[in-house]
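Illustration 12: EAL domain-containing protein.
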Amino acid sequence: AKEAGRNTFRSHHLDVSTDVLNDLVIRNGLRPALERNEFSLHYQPILTLDSGALIGAEALLRWQHPTLGNVPPDRFIPVAELTGHIVGIGEWVLGEACREAANWSRRGLGELTVSVNLSPLQFRHGTLEAHVSAALAEAGLSARCLELEITESTLIGDTATLVGQLANLKAQGIRLAIDDFGTGYSCLAYLRRLPVDRLKIDRSFVADMSQDADDASIVRAIVQMAAGLGLRTTAEGVEEAHHHDALKALGCTEVQGYHYARPMPADAFACWAADRLGQ
Ligand code: C2E
Ligand code: CA
Ligand code: CA
Ligand code: CA
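Figure caption equivalent — predicted structure in token form:
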């Protein structure tokens, strides 16, 4: 038992130092990653809940590191936010997602929307609106085919500036969504002042909806409030058929999750979409 205990301690100790080491490797790897083409985007379908029609896809960042392999975004994005690299990476994501979405319409997949995640730092940097316009123009993508996902943490701080930035983006015809809705900043009054189109209900509520009456109540409340404000709702992380049924009963409008499709590389998504359209 003593031996096992010592082994447990040693492997635990090892894990901790490996984590610290990996953080350093991640930190140092972020700078050259863009030039070395180590980033790519995967696309996860977003569907209407009633008819299952494909309306677009969320672009999700992937990083293939030369020694660490595939590093999940939850691991490196917080580091990139600390170092500021997320601004340059985010610019690349915008450009790449717009180019890909322009391809979809060229391939006859219809007018699909691409949803891009934005870090709060990209707003604070001040050049976001210019980068968004440039990305759309360079790709030849219509503004209404781009949706920007912001988290509630973006809404903390200088809201006057942020409301102005969002209004400018909105005036270009771009759509706006609040991501991970319900997990962050709890003041709902901002919803009246922000020109948002969509709330994405965080997957933690969706996952526990069937077992946990409180989570079902939260989902119901979000859907009803959104409907009252004229906003659409997308449930994230729909993994099971019973989630789908429960969301339908609650009046949620759109869905995304493993139950329908996982995030896929660009080519696989285009094939999936073509298949869906019966092409
Ligand atoms: P998110 O924006 O909430 O993205 C949804 C995450 O849920 C994705 O994880 C997706 O793969 C995962 N997901 C989708 N369906 C299901 C499901 O049915 N079950 C479960 N368990 N998970 C599901 P991913 O790709 O690992 O991304 C994690 C987070 O990293 C994202 O969360 C987002 O906050 C951030 N992220 C990803 N790409 C970008 C990016 O380009 N820029 C920024 N700033 N953040 C990004
Ligand atoms: Ca998102
Ligand atoms: Ca989310
Ligand atoms: Ca999230």
